[in-house]
Amino acid sequence: MGTATISTTDVVPGTDGEGRRRRTAVTAARLLGLLLVCALLALVTVVSVAVGAKAIPPGEVLRALLHGRASVDDSVVLDLRLPRTLLGIAVGAALGLAGVLMQALTRNPLADPGLLGVNMGASAAVVVAIALWHSTDPSFCVWFAFAGAGLASALVHLLGSRGRSGPPPVRLALAGTAVSAVLSALISVVTLLRPDVFDQFRFWGVGSLGGQPMSVVTEVLPFLGAGALLALGLSGPLNTLALGDDTARALGTGVRRTRLLGLLAVTLLCGAATAAVGPIAFVGLAVPHLARTLTGPDHRWLMPYAMVCGAALLVGSDILGRVLARPGEIQAGIVTAFAGAPVFIALVRRRRIAEL
Amino acid sequence: MTPQTASPVPPASPTSPASPGSGLRSVAPRGAVPGGRVLRLDGGRISLRWRPRTAVVCLLLTAACLVVGALGLTTGAYRVPLSGVLACLLGHGSAADSFIVTDLRLPRLVCALLAGGALGMSGAVFQSMSRNPLGSPDIVGFTSGAATGAVAQIVLFHGGPYATALAAMGGGLVTALVVGLVAAGRGPAVGHRVVLVGIGVSAMLTSLTAYLLTRASLYEAQDAQIWLIGSLNSVTWSVVAPLALALAVLVPVTVLCARALDWLELGEDTARGLGVPVGRARLVAAIAATALAAATTAAVGPITFVALAAPHLCRPLVRSPGALVVPSGAMGALLLSASDFAAGRVLPGTELPVGALTGVLGGLYLCRLLLARRRAART
Amino acid sequence: MPSAIHTRPRDTRSPLSALPGARPSRRGLLAGGLGAAALLGLTACGADDSGGPSTAGGSGAAGWSFTDDRGRTVRLSRRPKRIAFLTDTVGAALWAAGLHPVAATDSGQGIVPAVKPDWSGVAKIYSADKGVRIEALAQARPDLLIDAVQPDGTLQVASQLPAVTKIAPVVGLSTYRSIEQIAGTADRLTGSLGVRLADTGAKTRYEEAGSRLRKAVAADKELRVGFVFGIDKNTIGVMNPKTWAVLKTVSALGMRLLPVPGGADNTYSQAVSWENVPSLPVDLLVWAVSDPLPDNPLWKRTPAVRAGQLWKPDLSSWYAYSWENFTVLLDGLATHVQSAHAGVGPRTTS
Question: Are the Cβ atoms of C297 and A80 closer than 8 angstroms?
């Protein structure tokens, strides 16, 4: 954050005093906006604990939160709704943030964190774990998924990097596409040929917040935290990187170092998120665009907005999935797109397109 | 891969014709004006540019397709001697051999070549048009629309295979149209907006497909899934004929569009300055490429990655800027027919759907190209 | 997959078989799952069976004919000797009845191995796109094909029917019936093909097991039984009694099954969120898939589970429709019904 930052939209013509006043006004508006989005997230969080596939009166929900697991209803609140809400906030924020990073690093609006091979790497590792060890234990699969995500993104980075100049965006995108394609094809070959493996894998193959014990939340939280800190620390260098590699270099940003650290942060964030809930696609792709229409391209604002928006979108989708299909549920991974896409399209249409 | 210094996919630089900050500038060519020799027909009203290297690459790819085809026709689980295959092709084989060679293997091969070619061309057009190396017909929501159409037909209307093909085509085209209309508007960023709206619409449609499948009865769901796998196993002449007919119209249109696209890659302003009707050229190219994808999807279901990979696989071979529509088509045909050949034979006792292999073959080849370039850059 | 493009080719291509009726998992749906495990036989529908037997020429007094579950009669000039099974479920029933084919499918879901077939000299014709390898089938030179019939009366092989009927005529057997009907038709077919039953006592033992279960059920008429399986991490599925051969069989013996509201006769199951699982009005739960028992905290809170009224049978016996496998199944159910008590579960769903 300490690096010199230049924001492309903050440069306001006019006298110095006038410019400073406007900048202050813009900052105030963004701060207010951030508070509003946070309030939305808080509301969604409360609803997520209070509402579900089973109708439980608010008094009972409160009693469960305060006094523990006396009845089945208490267990529903504490063992099902609370972990999935926390998981939704953590994972949604991580995916939103990772999406911002990925689009900035590749300078491609179609880039989502999956492009680094994270989703496919994690899925392939889980398929291998199931095929060889027949294990579906969440706390076993988490580590496999994490290792797979790390390996795949390292491979993508290796393929996409060139000499000492760091991975140019296009090459990185192509490397990610190639590795993801190979891994996904391998997954489909294994699951086609081994229906028993598929039987187990389907529990994991669609992102869903439910059914994970609290222990999974605590297992992935350190990784998510580390990734988030790293990412937020890169917001300044990413702003200069947006001006092009040469300009960034001239301004004293370590281009190669920024890319490397950025990819490390994406791997931590997405690897842990995918390990915890399975692959969820739409959030990392769309939330950065959504946040960008609210803040403009300055990463110092874009990142916190994307985190809060990602969390709200994922938790909100999870609520919808629980309520719409009573007495069953629809996985959050499916609802996310359906709930988020109309908002996304409306923003893309109405607002001035915020460039990367 | 021969070492080469000129990167076929030049990294974006702030001085490239695409304005800085567009985000969609990656395929902008490094070369100046598209070169090559010009072939003029009809008193100069139709002119085709061609470059010797491009022609050689296309010929080599065609030869490779022929080799794959010959292998595909002569080998398989059913043993037909070489003489028997020839006799069948000349029209006087035994009834049993003819059933295998001309009713099973030949339509399957022809279908793979046609569908692969159409996908490759369509991908080349979309990548050039959107100036995005990840561009493919999916950019306008085509594949997800086709999948939703097909699944809706199977689950809600219970029609036969033809109805499914039509529904897939309709779903894909309607989706592309909706994306185009929703994204339309004034301003410089239409291309960017199409991409983003396409992302949103396809995401919704994919969810809708998943939801429809949950509403399906068991055998309908299974039927839908067979379609979604995208396999050439059950291809017959009745599938190939409409595809061939559609391509007969669409391929010439797309090839002619390719010229305008090459100019467009220099940047819209430059193209406009050179007298290219930018808006119309883009629209016609988009329609032709979408229709190519539609015809293919209707015939064989959604087979991914060919459209995305074929242009990238061609670029280092051809080593010239431009949309590379024709070589991409040849590469697509090779990729799909080779994948289908391998899918049927790679495992003893069973057969894989071709879609499961296009990713492996295309992806590994792409990895190899990237590695080769990386090494070249180091030396 | 949203969108798109690029990064995730697999999602559009998508996979395998399905778990319909259940709640969505896109992947779950698309790919195989229990759905597959369970249903293997139930593929395609769509194209109607235009052809019937193409070589119906024959006739003659010494000919062979068989009327299948679609009501179509296949007539051949002589009794067919080279038989091919086009689907696992029907194949398993016929292997168990002693018929040895020249070509058969095994999609790897454990259904065919459950009847311990002898594969020597048999061509494997399963294609991983859920169809049949037609060239391999042709190479085996069968003179009669046997396939499963869907609830709507079409053959499972429907999408490949035009090619398949050029090889040999097809007989269709329905697996959406009780075991007596499925195994009964299999016996009738094998009999007409001149095959001696390998194990003549199997049917008798099945009937004895059936009467044991009938007696156990009659002793406690209030006992409510639910057949469930895990759909995804959020939900379990309650199997529809109107669809599954197993459930049709036990319900004919008087067992009181957990109904699926609004379930047509072709839906697999109803998805129930874990939040609602403890409220299911059941006294005895049968975990009817090969997956391990769930470790969801609400599972332990479910009354039937807490009372130990739970059974996880060996699943290989479930979709292989033979007298012997169903004997094992009915015996197991009889034991658990005898030891279970009614009134453990909640009265009604809240």
Answer: yes
Residue C73: how many CB atoms within 10 A of its CB?
13
Sign of the CA dihedral A159, A163, A168, A170? negative
Q: How confident is the model at residue B249 (pLDDT cuts 50, 70, 90)?
A: very high
pLDDT of res. C96: 87
Domain boundary among the residues C192, C213, C233 is at C192
How many structural domains is chain C composed of?
2
Across the beta sheet with C170-174, the strand order is C123-124, C103-104, C83-85, C144-149, C170-174
Task: Assign B214 to helix, strand or coil.
Answer: helix
C4 part of a folded domain: no
More confident residue, A136 or C44: A136
What is the rounded average pLDDT of the residues B69-81? 89
pLDDT digits (tens, 9 = 90+) for B164-206: 888 998 998 899 888 888 877 655 556 667 777 887 888 888 8
What local confidence, expressed as pLDDT, does residue B375 receive? 62
Residue C324 sits in which domain range? 202-339
Domain count, chain B: 1
Residue among C13, C124, C152 whose CB faces B302 most closely: C13
Rg (CA), chain A: 21
Whether residues C186 and C213 fall in one domain = no
**Domain membership of residue B72 as a residue range:** 67-371
Q: How far apart are CA C288 and CA C314, in angstroms?
A: 9
**Among partner residues A8, A174, A285, which is closest to B370 by beta-carbon distance?**
A174
The structure tokens 């990238």 sit at B312
pLDDT of residue A350: 67
Among C6, C235, C298, whose Cβ lies nearest the Cβ of A328? C235
Q: Which helix (H) or strand (E) holds C224?
A: strand C224-230
Q: Average pLDDT in the A241-263 region?
A: 81
Which of A99, A96, A104, A140 lies closest to A305, judged by CA? Answer: A96
Inter-chain touch A53–C4, beta carbons under 8 Å: no
Q: Give the tens place of pLDDT for each residue, A51-81.
A: 888 888 888 888 888 887 778 888 888 889 9
Best of B26, B215, B229 to disrupt the A interface (most A CBs within 10 Å) is B26
| B34 found inside a domain | no
Question: Which CATH number belongs to the domain containing residue C147 in this structure?
Answer: 3.40.50.1980
C16/A195 touch (CB, cutoff 8 Å), yes or no: yes
Give the end of a domain, one of C148, C170, C192: C192
